[in-house]
Design a protein that fits this description.
4-stranded antiparallel β-sheet; 117 residues; 41% strand; 1 helix; globular; mainly beta
Length: 117
């Protein structure tokens, strides 16, 4: 919740984005099966906070670097790198309908959710 407040305050201070127009995107956590360290993590994996307005995806401030994939009918139709300094990504207008959004970082975990464009 603290991250959400920080992200919203940051965006409100910037003034160029109407944060209240964005809807939250619920993300799940997946694991690609790669070995991780020497056992179970003591800290739970927490998905990043994302919001959507049309074809714009808003990331919380200070997130990790991600590769963002948009999947339709089991096929990646769009992919882009999202550096940690980026808070707003605009998806191409040729994307439409229900899509799966996948976020990959350098860890063995990935995040997934569904959006409608």
């Amino acid at each position: 919740m603290k991250k959400l407040k920080v992200a919203l305050i940051t965006l409100l201070l910037l003034g160029s984005i109407d944060v209240l127009a964005f809807d939250p995107i619920g993300l799940g956590v997946g694991f690609d099966g790669s070995p991780i360290g020497s056992g179970h993590s003591k800290v739970p994996v927490v998905p990043p906070s994302l919001w959507q307005e049309g074809h714009q995806i808003l990331f919380e401030a200070n997130h990790s670097d991600y590769t963002l994939d948009i999947v339709q009918d089991g096929e990646v139709v769009y992919s882009t790198f999202v550096p940690s300094s980026t808070t707003l990504v605009t998806l191409p207008v040729f994307l439409s309908g229900e899509c799966e959004i996948l976020l990959y970082s350098s860890s063995a975990y990935y995040f997934y959710g569904y959006i409608i464009l």
